[in-house]
Design the sequence.
């Protein structure tokens, strides 16, 4: 009887472990497809674009997976990204955001209650949709709220990994 019970427990543990592993692997298809292996996504707006869109204040925006990600190790459905942006007229801001997979896309919350945004696949690019508020700390000051109408949606193509280095 004891041997039969031990075998049943071992089978149950193996099935549960396989299911948990499969759920974890399937839980982050966006991360695996877009951000794994240090992939970087960057959009740089040239001066002509900025003149045509005067309400836009962001001249650059990038997203890359955070190299040392304690969140992903503990919660397979969640992960940390590093993102940054350049504000027209000066100011470079770089921060972290905790993201998790939802039915509406990847819901990301900037550290320090900096605001929210979503990431969704757009072919080989990433679509970033800012909430009405996004502001993070820079080297000298806090950024203005960049979650304004002119900055709300950005399409970030894949770029070389060096393009997403901190500035």
Sequence:
């Amino acid at each position: 009887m004891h041997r039969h019970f031990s075998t049943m427990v071992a089978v149950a543990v193996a099935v549960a472990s396989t299911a948990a592993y499969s759920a974890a692997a399937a839980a982050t298809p966006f991360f695996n497809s877009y951000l794994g292996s240090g992939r970087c996504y960057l959009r740089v707006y040239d001066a002509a674009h900025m003149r045509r869109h005067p309400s836009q204040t962001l001249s650059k925006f990038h997203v890359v997976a955070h190299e040392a990600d304690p969140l992903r190790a503990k919660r397979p459905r969640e992960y940390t990204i590093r993102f940054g942006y350049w504000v027209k007229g000066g100011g470079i801001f770089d921060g972290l955001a905790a993201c998790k997979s939802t039915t509406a896309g990847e819901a990301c919350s900037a550290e320090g209650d900096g605001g929210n945004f979503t990431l969704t696949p757009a072919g080989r690019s990433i679509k970033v949709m800012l909430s009405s508020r996004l502001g993070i700390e820079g080297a000298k000051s806090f950024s203005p709220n960049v979650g304004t109408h002119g900055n709300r949606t950005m399409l970030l193509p894949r770029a070389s990994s060096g393009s997403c280095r901190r500035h």
